[in-house]
């Protein structure tokens, strides 16, 4: 299993669980709180943050690429769903889903993307 690359500037705010990154603990008082993330399948770079940071800010603050160089995701833990924003490179969405499973996201949690899913989550996605 290839471990995603987490920038040091980002990692300094977390206790990183290298086998299950999405179980990492934010140092400033929250557990299980990864809400949004950005993943670059080519480089393996993974960015993540607590609610309600915007993907654009994560990329500007921690990333090495441009906005469209990343697959962007939102974790709806209460709905047991991880939603991936659509991207022109379908294989990147599939590679991101594979990375999530390798990082301990169980089969009980749906990893979804696409127009129908965006419609399903319309209210939750408003303003995110």
Task: Give a written overview of the molecule.
The chain is α+β, with helices and mostly antiparallel strands. It has one domain: Severin (3-Layer(aba) Sandwich). It contains five helices and seven strands; from the N terminus they run H-E-E-E-E-H-E-E-H-E-H-H. The longest helix is centred in the last third of the chain and has 13 residues, at 90-102. The protein is globular and about 35 Å long. It starts with 7 loop residues before the first helix and ends with a helix.
* Low-pLDDT ranges: none
Structural class: alpha+beta
Total beta strand runs: 7
The secondary-structure element order is HEEEEHEEHEHH
At the first level of CATH, the class is: Alpha Beta
Helical content class? 25-40%
Q: The CATH topology, please?
A: Severin
Task: Specify the number of helices.
Answer: 5
Q: What's the gist of this structure?
A:
The chain is α+β, with helices and mostly antiparallel strands. It has helices at about 10, 55-60, 90-100, 115-120, 120-125; strands at about 15, 25, 35-40, 45-50, 70-75, 80-85, 110.
């Amino acid at each position: 299993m290839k471990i995603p690359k987490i920038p040091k500037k980002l990692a300094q705010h977390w206790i990183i669980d290298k086998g299950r990154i999405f179980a990492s603990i934010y140092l400033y008082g929250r557990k299980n709180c990864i809400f949004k993330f950005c993943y670059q399948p080519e480089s393996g770079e993974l960015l993540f943050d607590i609610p309600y940071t915007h993907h654009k800010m994560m990329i500007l603050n921690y990333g090495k690429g441009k906005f469209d160089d990343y697959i962007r995701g939102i974790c709806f833990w209460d709905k047991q769903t991880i939603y991936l924003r659509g991207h022109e490179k379908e294989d990147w969405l599939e590679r991101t889903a594979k990375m999530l499973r390798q990082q301990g996201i169980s089969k009980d949690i749906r990893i979804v993307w696409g127009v129908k899913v965006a419609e399903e989550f319309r209210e939750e996605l408003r303003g995110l």
